[in-house]
TrEMBL record:
InterPro entries: LRR_dom_sf. SUPFAM superfamilies: RNI-like. It comes from the Eukaryota. It comes from Rhizophagus irregularis (strain DAOM 197198w) (Glomus intraradices). This is F-box domain-containing protein.
């Protein structure tokens, strides 16, 4: 019975996973509540504060503390109620390195060389502690510098045998890759950052997987011959993949290999320059019968290829994100017609879309009306504003008048454009939103950048109005994000 209660309590507290304030209140109820809550608070190292890392150092075994002392690293020790290291299921080596570096930087007046050396020693001991005390579910180990490496080989405790998600850079040690191949056979997600080369051991790791569904590769740096071999690498991937992400920096690689993954439900392509994805032409006739999410970031392929792709694959799409801020120079000489053609294709061939991110030219109100009439299930829309795109007033009025199920509006600004929405117009929008039937609380998000000094959110009166309607419950969620 006590175990049943503990299991039920764990399920209940799980619902508070994103509510840190409530979780900290749960710590104070009794020891059982505290133990269950601690397990949730400490399972993801990405959520640790710098003071949490001070606590983690206190959890190091005596042998590790002795090593720290022998290297001149003096730490303050205190008694810990729990061995917090055993709760960790999500480990990011680079995040641990970053936080320990800042901890030492704030606590000691060290030379840069000593700061780097001390950080390396402490992080290595933390890795050893994890290897002997926990079994990870998620591991991230990205090594941008060959001079900073950590040993995280599998231990008898099964440190990596239950791993389901793995992110790493291709320049990690071959020994670690070999050990991963021997230990990790049930990865669900594999995320690889290609730096300099594609090791044979990476191919072996891919070949041994039984349940791989998501694969992501970022081409960070490398020799041309290595980059040209990427299609050969992808041949070892299971054709049952449901998610594929390819990110490139200044490289032109062929995307033709993607046509083999006909079970894809999500496809994300991200390149710095449109020249890098001219090979999208190879995809225009491909059929992905289960594709639900299409994301194309930064550079965009030629419009004619993209439109053909949407005509073939739009029926089941539920989310489309296409960056259109470079349309004028990179997609077509006639930017307005290109954007209109894209949106008309989405309206005609993507009737089941739920979430859309695109742009509408400053003369495209009629196009927005067509989109809302044809895409009855649309719940979230991101609209580029200002300059050659619609202004905020026109965009918001169109959402009010023509949309039926929208509950999230995202306004994205181009760099240094000036907002045009008056405070009275913003308040009028919220008043009319409150009258909508059925009434749905609004999620209102603004994307701009550090270069955008005149966005809607920079106006004090606008912010006061937003705060007013948050308190009234009209706006359920309000965010300001930097898209850069």
């Amino acid at each position: 019975m006590p175990q049943l209660f503990a299991d039920c309590l764990n399920e209940v507290i799980e619902y508070l996973n994103d509510d840190k304030y409530s979780l900290h209140s749960c710590l104070l109820v009794n020891r059982l509540w505290c133990q269950v809550t601690v397990g949730i608070l400490w399972r993801d190292c990405n959520n640790y504060s710098i003071s949490d890392y001070r606590t983690l150092i206190n959890c190091l075994p005596d042998e590790s503390k002795k090593i720290l002392k022998e290297n001149g690293i003096i730490i303050s020790t205190s008694h810990q109620i729990f061995n917090y290291a055993i709760f960790c299921k999500v480990l990011s080596i680079s995040k641990v390195h970053e936080k320990i570096f800042h901890l030492l930087e704030n606590q000691y007046n060290l030379l840069v060389e000593d700061l780097i050396n001390y950080t390396h020693i402490i992080v290595q001991e933390i890795c050893k502690m994890y290897m002997n005390q926990t079994s990870l579910k998620v591991l991230e180990y990205v090594q941008y510098s060959d001079s900073i490496t950590y040993d995280i080989y599998p231990s008898p405790k099964g440190f990596l045998k239950n791993l389901t998600k793995l992110t790493f850079s291709s320049n990690i040690s071959p020994e670690l890759l070999i050990n991963l191949t021997q230990t990790c056979h049930n990865l669900f997600l594999l995320d690889v950052i290609i730096i300099y080369h594609i090791p044979k051991e990476l191919v072996d790791l891919i070949t041994i997987q039984k349940n791989l569904k998501c694969f992501s590769m970022m081409i960070h740096d490398g020799l041309k011959d290595e980059i040209d071999s990427i299609p050969l690498l992808t041949m070892e991937l299971p054709k049952t993949l449901t998610r594929f992400v390819v990110v490139g920096e200044n490289y032109n690689i062929s995307l033709s290999f993607l046509v083999n993954f006909t079970n894809l439900q999500e496809l994300e392509i991200s390149f710095d320059f449109s020249e890098c994805i001219e090979s999208f032409e190879k995809l225009q006739d491909a059929i992905f019968p289960q594709l639900q999410i299409l994301i194309i970031k930064y550079a965009c392929p030629r419009m004619e290829f993209l439109i053909k792709f949407l005509k073939n694959n739009g029926k089941n799409l539920k989310k489309i994100h296409i960056d259109v801020d470079d349309c004028e120079s990179e997609i077509s000489e006639d930017s307005e017609n290109s954007i209109n053609s894209l949106n008309l294709t989405i309206a005609k061939y993507c009737p089941n879309i739920r979430k859309l991110s695109t742009g509408f030219s400053d003369k495209a109100l009629e196009m927005l009306k067509i989109l809302f009439n044809n895409c009855q299930y649309l719940e979230s829309i991101k609209i580029w504003c200002g300059g050659r795109f619609l202004n905020e007033k026109e965009a918001l009025e169109a959402v009010l008048e023509y949309s039926k199920n929208i509950f999230e509006i995202i306004l994205q600004y181009e760099f240094d454009v000036k907002f045009e929405l008056l405070p009275s117009e913003l308040e009028s929008f919220f008043i009319d939103w409150k009258k909508r039937i059925p009434q749905k609380p609004l999620s209102f998000v603004i994307f701009d950048s550090e270069f955008c000094k005149n966005g809607l959110d920079k106006n004090v009166e606008n912010m006061k109005i937003i705060e007013k309607y948050i308190k009234l419950g009209v706006v359920k969620n309000f965010e300001i994000d930097d898209y850069s």
